[in-house]
């Protein structure tokens, strides 16, 4: 690379900056997602790490991110993705992330149950 350094564009440095940079319609959708996560994990703490907002409960719980054509819930648990495989069949996904369409209703009940299951995983891991 001829000695040139690769520089990343400076992105947001906090959850508030991240959310403020989103279009208003996306802010509302992400706000609804955050509300479901908070209702499932009211004692969790929201931080900004890996360039996305992440909720912590006995370690990283779940994260979320907005993209141009979808938004994602980062479960950070391939095992959980496998356990909920049937319920997640209609969603785009990677190993530990669910892709949600801006055009579809938020699957509140499913997300609530996923966050609760993730909390149980983290709590069980911490007890070991």
Here the CATH topology equals: Aspartate Aminotransferase, domain 1
Strand content: 15-25%
Average of pLDDT:
92
Instruction: Please outline the major beta sheet.
Output: 6 strands, antiparallel
Helix content: 25-40%
As a whole number of angstroms, the C-alpha radius of gyration is 16 Å
Encode the helix/strand succession as letters.
HHEEEEHEEH
CATH classification class: Alpha Beta
Please state how the strands of the largest beta sheet are arranged side by side.
Answer: 1-2-3-4-6-5
In one word, what is the shape?
globular
Count of discrete domains:
1
Poorly predicted runs are: none
> What is the architecture at the second tier of CATH?
Alpha-Beta Complex
Total strands: 6
**Helix/sheet category:** alpha+beta
List the total number of helices.
Answer: 4
The first-to-last residue Cα distance is 47 Å
